[in-house]
Specification:
With 230 residues, this protein is an alpha/beta fold. It has one domain: TIM Barrel. Helix content is 22%, strand content 21%. It has a 9-stranded mixed beta sheet. α5 links the parallel β8 (168-172) and β9 (197-199). α1 (63-72) runs parallel beside α2. The longest helix has 14 residues, at 180-193. It starts with 7 loop residues before the first strand and ends in a 23-residue tail after the last helix.
Length: 230
């Protein structure tokens, strides 16, 4: 997959509100790019990469076109997400959004270099492609996906026991959102460690907030079976 792109492959664009993290509840325009080499078995945006869900009508759009579309929706900020957006050179998209007065947030696994100029960086590390040290330093917030009760311990150990980011969100993997052992492990971790750890949730999902916009695609979540990928 090339990192140079005059036209970006776009899975979807839509107006909603940020459903996670520090900016929870704020009006945002989302640009979801197509493609992801990480391929988590529980991915909630499987249409960006999974062969059973990849759409036939992948749009190709210039940075300027996407920036104009974002501006027309009058969001507080733009969120570039995926898939994994940092497999592409995002410099021109950043510049185009800045030129129309929109701050740009990034959601990434952190395994690929992050361009300069983002107003906010969320890193959600994945075991399949661990984050670069520079990405962890750049992150304004970390979103850990809690797949099992020992997820927090494993990730904290993997980064040497210290996170640079002031906020480390603990989100239950969505197929485990009703699993008491996972939820209790998050509660106990926050109670025993405090900052920077914070209990998290994907609040936009029970609202169906993203799906209400005509630009969004129908959800294509996977189920968590690592052997099958769905």
């Amino acid at each position: 997959m090339s990192k140079m792109a005059e036209l970006y492959p776009v899975n979807e664009t839509f107006l909603s509100w940020q459903g996670e993290g520090v900016h929870l509840g704020r009006k945002a325009f989302f640009i979801r790019l197509q493609g992801c080499p990480v391929k988590c078995p529980w991915c909630d945006s499987a249409s960006t990469w999974h062969p059973q869900y990849i759409p036939k009508d992948i749009r190709k759009a210039s940075a300027e076109e996407l920036a104009r579309e974002a501006k027309a929706n009058q969001p507080e900020f733009v969120v570039i997400t995926g898939g994994e957006p940092c497999v592409y050179d995002l410099t021109s998209l950043l510049k185009a959004c800045s030129a129309v007065g929109l701050p740009v947030h990034l959601e990434t696994c952190g395994a690929y270099p992050i361009a300069d100029g983002f107003a906010w960086v969320t890193v959600s590390p994945k075991w399949a492609k661990p984050p670069l040290p520079d990405s962890l330093i750049r992150a304004n917030e970390i979103k850990l996906i809690v797949e099992s009760p020992d997820s927090m311990k494993k990730w904290t150990s993997a980064v040497g026991g210290h996170w640079h980011a002031p906020n480390v969100w603990l989100h239950p993997e969505w197929s485990q959102r009703s699993e008491s052992t996972v939820l209790n492990s998050i509660t106990e971790w926050v109670k025993s460690h405090g900052a920077p750890y914070r209990a998290g949730w994907q609040v936009h999902k029970p609202y169906f907030a993203d799906s209400l916009d005509t630009g969004s695609r129908p959800p294509a979540p996977l189920g968590g079976d690592a052997m099958k990928g769905f």
